[in-house]
Amino acid sequence: MHVFRRISREEGLKTLYRGFAPTILERSGRPQPYPYERMAFGACAGLLGQSASYPLDVVRRRMQTAGVTGHTYGTIAGTMRDIVAEEGVVRGLYKGLSMNWVKGPIAVGISFTTFDLTMILLRKLREKGYTSS
Q: Is the pTM of this model over 0.70?
């Protein structure tokens, strides 16, 4: 456990996952993942990212609509405390998350796949001399 903490502190958390993708691909015998695998990786990233940031979206929406609903919120932390006190953590900070799980992973999966495939195409075009840079 000490090693993980030290590496995370000194080199960053990303260092723990360096080489993960090549290792997985090496076992499959392919240099690149298939497009549907890229989409699945993007969908997982979208699901995790949206789940982690969703409470801040709830707080932002509550602060934006405070005048209409009759509440007065001062700070982000204060708003979060009020929501948790009134509605609880799950029912308050994660209200509506399931709908984001429907649209979010699909959108992020498509974005990841499109970005990766576009970058591969542009690299190939540059190697063949079709672009200027």
A: no
Supply 86's token pair: 């009134």
pLDDT tens digits, one per residue of 51-92: 999 999 999 999 999 888 888 888 999 999 999 999 999 999
Task: Please report the sign of the dihedral spanned by the C-alpha atoms of residue 26, residue 31, residue 36, residue 40.
Answer: positive
- Summarize pLDDT for 108-121 with one digit per residue, the tens: 999 999 999 999 99
- Cβ atoms 111, 41 nearer than 8 A: no
SS3 of the chain: the string is CHHHHHHHHHHCHHHHHCCHHHHHHHHHCCCCCCHHHHHHHHHHHHHHHHHHHHHHHHHHHHHHCHHHHCCCCCCHHHHHHHHHHHHCHHHHHCCCHHHHHHHHHHHHHHHHHHHHHHHHHHHHHHHCCCCCC
Whether the per-residue pLDDT at 7 is higher than 80: the answer is no
Name, in order, each residue with C-beta under 8 angstroms of 108's C-beta and a sequence gap of 6 or more.
42, 43, 45, 46, 47, 49, 50
